[in-house]
Amino acid sequence: MQRNRRFAGLAFVFLIGLCICTGLVRGDQADKPKVLIIGDSISIGYTNDVAKLLADKAEVVRPRREKGGIINCGSSAMGIAGIDQWLGDTKWDVVHFNWGLWDIAHRSEDSKAQGKRDKVNGKITAKPAEYEANLRKLVSKLKSTGATLIWASTSPVPDGEVGRIRGDEVKYNAIAAKVMAENGIAVDDLYSYMLPKAKEFWVGPGNVHYTKEGSRYLADKVAAMIECALGPMTMELWPDGVPDAKGKEDKDIPTMTVYLPMGGKANGAAVVVCPGGGYGHLAMDHEGDQIARWLNSFGVTGVVLNYRHRGKGYGYPAPLDDAQRAMRLVRSNAGLWGIDTSKVGVLGFSAGGHLVSTVTTLFDKEYGKAGDEVDKFSSRPDFSVLCYPVISTTEWFAHKGSKNNLLGKDADGMLVRLMSTELQVTKNTPPTFLLHANDDRGVWPENSIAFYTALRKAKVKAEMHIYEKGGHGFGLGKGKGPVESWPDVCGKWILAVTSDK
């Protein structure tokens, strides 16, 4: 994702970033969340860029000497020696930290070359058991601060590096990952993120360090992770111009809000959530925010879509354009957010369920295109969840309010049939989970039944649950009787269907 898409409109960014990085706090900086970056020379390279990217959101600092020089936090043993001083008495909101590059360095013990890196004759700085023990001590100390902790994996080591053996970083990253998992700490996987680009960005042969462009590339990843740790991150779907926009007000600018699962739970899956509202408004709380946080509870990234609808002055094809664009955007940002592009699903409620069903069945149509790099990513969901969905626009049980808001009262018959999604299911439709209540008088359960029947005929994997009671619009179903069990059932289904990938 281009940085101007996430952090558009920053004023005097360089000056503000410089003030942050030198420890100066001016204006409203004192009121912003405080972020500490601890790490080796690789992290020194990206710190200033991270500070610039987050200038309007947080005060970003890193350990410095009394005279202002940046401290290379070195090995895990050096971390133990310096951690109290680096933390100081500041109340940190987020700590993004890393040790490893120094720990895997082999250093000479020869008196004439004391401390120089030498993988042939030198001794490794910290053996695996020592590295693990040091990390546990450091994690214990960091957890005591109450800050949200983010571990950054060690970036790739090139062949020919004088003091390090390529592959050691993989072994030590595995050790660190185990420690972080045991302590519920989120992992910012810089290794996997940089691996495809490392040769392009290394300063030179055998050098682990990166060019300015490489450091900026890493900064995008680090900043995205920190931003989501500070709270959900909202971005525009169409930063270069909304298709068929009727104005430039907030209602004309669709967005999506990203909720990353922190605390070491992330499993690589993501779900775009489409709240309901009859294509006339959006139930952004109980069918949006609450759903994203529920997804986070079992490791899935939640992306809540604020799409255009009749209440904002828009009908077909705006909602479908927005939803398919969101699917592509999620995949285009997979590296930044730690998402597996083969585990991206979609979930919707009521009319949002209808929108999801159109994404589920019409993914091969030319919706949601912007003429940019994002277009190359697929909008086909890997799985779909339809909660008390509107489905048919042709049968007696069609929801007339949603149909009219989406298509208008005098819609062309071909378009009406296209939007009756039980008629659009094919063998290529992704696995689908359906949920409804038998006593739903807002949207008849025959909608789910019709879609489920079509899935069965097409031999698509499907699961449907119709509860006796629950009515319409029950969201997570808390306090609604047996229907409140659906999140647990559905969560297990999502984990099962994504584990097959």
* CATH architecture descriptor text of the largest domain: 3-Layer(aba) Sandwich
Strand-residue fraction? Answer: 5-15%
Helix/sheet category? alpha/beta
Major pleated sheet: 8 strands, mixed
Q: Going across the major beta sheet, what is the strand order?
A: 8-9-11-10-12-13-14-15
Low-confidence stretches are 1-28
Distance between the termini: 25 Å
Per CATH, what is the topology of the largest domain? Rossmann fold
Q: How would you briefly describe this protein structure?
A:
The protein is α/β, with parallel strands linked by helices and 501 residues long. Helices cover 36% and strands 13% of the residues.
How does this model look, in words?
- The protein has 501 residues and is α/β, with parallel strands linked by helices.
- The chain has 2 domains: 3-230, Rossmann fold; 252-499, Rossmann fold.
- It is built from 17 helices and 15 strands.
- The protein has helices spanning 3-6, 13-21, 41-53, 76-87, 128-143, 168-182, 190-194, 198-201, 212-230, 285-297, 318-332, 334-337, 351-361, 400-407, 413-418, 446-457, 486-499; strands spanning 34-38, 59-61, 94-97, 106-107, 123-124, 148-152, 186-188, 233-236, 255-259, 270-274, 301-306, 344-349, 384-387, 432-437, 462-467.
- The strands form 3 sheets. An 8-stranded mixed beta sheet has the order 8-9-11-10-12-13-14-15, with helices on both faces.
- Helix 3 (41-53) links the parallel strand 1 (34-38) and strand 2 (59-61).
- Helix 11 (318-332) packs across helix 13.
- The longest helix is centred in the middle third of the chain and has 19 residues, at 212-230.
- It is elongated.
- Mean pLDDT is 92; it is low at 1-28.
